[in-house]
Amino acid sequence: MSRPEIQVQGLHKSFGDNEVLRGIDLEIGQGEVVCVIGPSGSGKSTLLRCVNLLEEPTKGRVFVGGAELTDPDVDIDAVRRRIGMVFQQFNLFPHVTVTENLTLPQRRVLGRGKAQAAKVAAENLARVGLAEKADAYPSSLSGGQQQRVAIARALAMGPQVMLFDEPTSALDPELVGDVLAVMRMLADEGMTMMVVTHEMSFAREVADRVVFMDGGAVVEDGTPEQVIGNPRHDRTRHFLSRLLDPAMAEVESTPSDKADDDAAADDDG
Which residues touch 2 (CB under 8 Å, ≥6 apart)? Predict the structure, then answer.
């Protein structure tokens, strides 16, 4: 593996009495794309949120680019500037244009001037295929376009690592492809990416590694061919068979992992 860009060591996270993460160890090398899969409530989104300290681990250590986020003395804002995050929901400012959604964070967080921020915004809107939407407001965009704007906003900050938390789960099926195409482009460019997803075709085609989680633990970690094509564990096989069987998936459908984790946090403290 190349130099680790993300390192997670002995990570535990509890919400009250509910232990959501149970000792996660994970390394992601520079330029690697790692897809994290697993059933709802398995801790996938909580793990992702611990990587940039949106959730504070109960125990364990997290490093990004060699800097320890879990060190009490770390400049967390400085380290977070290296990390781009794309959520299930787009979190765009509805009252300003697409360009302003990209320039405001640059100016406030990075201190860039208006002209430089606008230039970077235009470059990244072009990267995600939305140059013509620069002056539009989010409400006039489709969900897929809004998510591509959210990706462009994260890229405009110049991150070394991109984290994606179910980026297509809130989209209508016909809008998913354009978002995944942008993510494929980033992978081809060598961006280090950690992606929580149920899109198995994307994981097969784009991921260097697939991590299967269940019950707050890593059950399998390997190439897409190993984990999706020839899983070693019964839990992985059951999850994949349920995911790929529409009838069974409809019967057993549950809220997103993040929603489950939030509910656990609400119920248990």
Answer: 29, 30, 31, 32
* Neighbouring C-beta atoms of residue 177, cutoff 10 Å: 12
Residue (of 261, 260, 219, 209) closest to 239 by Cα position: 219
pLDDT score, position 92: 95
Above 70 in pLDDT, residue 107?
Answer: yes
> What's the pLDDT at 119?
97
pTM over 0.85: yes
Q: How many CA atoms lie within 13 A of 45 on its CB side?
A: 23
Q: What angle do CA 137, 157, 119 make, to 5 degrees?
A: 65
Mean pLDDT of the chain: 89
The C-alpha atoms of residue 25 and residue 216 are separated, in whole angstroms, by 12
Q: Which residues contact 220 (CB under 8 A, 6 or more apart)?
A: 210, 211, 212, 226, 227, 231, 232, 233, 236
E strands present in 95-158: none
How far apart (Å, rounded) are the C-alpha atoms in residues 212 and 44?
A: 9
User: 196: which strand partners?
Assistant: 36, 165
**What are the b/e assignments for 121-135, b being 16+ CB within 10 Å?**
bbebbebbebeebbe
Are the C-beta atoms of residues 24 and 218 closer than 8 Å to each other?
yes
Q: Are 150 and 141 in contact (CB under 8 A)?
A: no
